[in-house]
Amino acid sequence: MSLTPDAPREDGPSGLFAEDFPDLYRAADLTSTSGRDRTFWLNRCYLGALSVGAIAGVITWKVGSQDLMGWVSVGAFGQVPRRGVRNESSVGRVARR
Does pLDDT of 40 surpass 90? Predict the structure, then answer.
């Protein structure tokens, strides 16, 4: 279902067109779809960071006494947020709106 005004009318599975639904329903549908897409994108980023961290942790590349791939691993794992821990900066942004 497309919500753009210039989109062609498409018959939905219930036989109704997109403009037959109330504005509140269409707004909720658009918000839900964008939230789902953002969640999938963030999950791909998190899985990519975990993969980079795991691969970098297996490889050894030393320069002097420092293991550079170890630092890459630490940096990659640092990009993945801990689940269940609230980010205080995002809470503050929401409260100020």
Answer: yes
